[in-house]
UniProtKB/TrEMBL annotation:
This is Pyrimidine reductase family protein. Gene3D superfamilies: Dihydrofolate Reductase, subunit A. GO terms for biological process: riboflavin biosynthetic process. Pfam families: RibD_C. Keywords: NADP, Oxidoreductase. GO terms for molecular function: 5-amino-6-(5-phosphoribosylamino)uracil reductase activity. Pathway: Cofactor biosynthesis; riboflavin biosynthesis. Coiled coil: none annotated. The keyword Nucleotidyltransferase does not apply. The keyword Ligase does not apply.
Length: 262
């Protein structure tokens, strides 16, 4: 979601204030939330944290991308979430539409990760069945850490060979696309215990159906998009599940919600 290239708070999140409306109403520095997010992050065995943004009328896009809905605080929160994660997962559609480059967290987040004994940046994991990706795509060419590419059994063999030069290419599951459960097993096998999923809507829908969304962090922008933008989930009719409210943050007219998905 949002602008993946942006590092709005290069020195960390200390200077960014946000209103926590619930629980414990207070004005807090974003950086204060990070230790809590780390402690509360669901284990890979339970699924991922999904981070998405929506307009008030339920659109996941403004002018075809989510970035127009975002704000500097929302961007900083995204950097914070990335900094806590071991792996950041995104579908190839979002990668293409939003123009992902190499996944880097801000300088302040690198410093925090070092203090935790973590690598400087999380691993970017891209889901693609068709593998119409190129070794010189910015997300590969500019990657600070070798990315993962997760695919299915019908992936073209020549693309697998070419991409294996610059990424770890993994067939996860035995279907045409990567299976969400097999993807999480692969992360666990690699010692990646904190998973952040940045969508897009078709990926999130599959992960939700497979019970792999443990938490949803949804920013609700103070804007109406109109038009025919898709929702944050787009897929087959799924099984509805309840969600328990964990936190509400406010920045101006934007609300940032955290829910545990049942
Ligand atoms: N509001 C938000 O928070 C938010 C977040 C993210 C994206 N978006 C918006 O959503 C739109 C893109 O939507 P989308 O649904 O097309 O994006 P998407 O879910 O990121 O991408 C779909 C693509 O991901 C790959 N894919 C999906 N499931 C797969 C699986 N199980 N195994 C392997 N590959 C898989 C396929 O790529 P291949 O075609 O390469 O096989 C598929 O075409 C953009 O406009 C973007 O701006 C909004």
């Amino acid at each position: 979601m949002n602008d993946p290239q942006s590092h709005p708070e290069p020195s960390g999140h200390r200077a960014m204030l946000v209103d926590r409306l619930w629980p414990d109403p207070a004005t807090v520095e974003l950086g204060e939330l990070r230790e809590h997010y780390l402690a509360a992050w669901p284990d890979v065995a339970d699924g991922a944290v999904a981070m998405m943004i929506s307009s008030l009328d339920g659109s996941a896009q403004l002018d075809g991308v989510s970035g127009g809905l975002s704000s500097p605080v929302d961007q900083a929160l995204m950097d914070l979430n990335r900094s806590v994660a071991d792996v950041v997962v995104v579908g190839a559609g979002t990668l293409r539409e939003e123009g992902y480059g190499g996944l880097r967290v801000s300088a302040g987040s690198v410093a925090w990760r070092r203090r935790q004994g973590l690598s400087d940046h999380p691993v970017l994991a891209v889901l693609s069945a068709r593998l119409e990706l190129r070794a010189d795509d910015p997300f590969l060419a500019e990657a600070p850490v070798r990315p993962l590419i997760l695919t299915g059994t019908e992936a073209p063999a020549d693309a697998v060979r070419e991409l294996a030069e610059v990424a770890e290419v993994v067939v996860a599951g035995d279907g045409p696309g990567a299976d969400p459960v097999a993807v999480h097993q692969e992360f666990a096998r690699r010692g990646m215990t904190r998973v952040l999923c940045e969508g897009g809507p078709s990926v999130l829908s599959q992960w939700f159906d497979a019970g792999r969304v443990a938490e949803l962090h949804l920013s609700v922008a103070g804007a109406l998009a109109g038009g025919a933008g898709q929702r944050i989930m787009h897929g087959r009719a799924g099984t509805a599940r309840p969600a328990e409210l964990l936190q509400v943050l406010r920045d101006g007219s934007m609300l940032m919600l955290r829910h545990r998905v049942g």
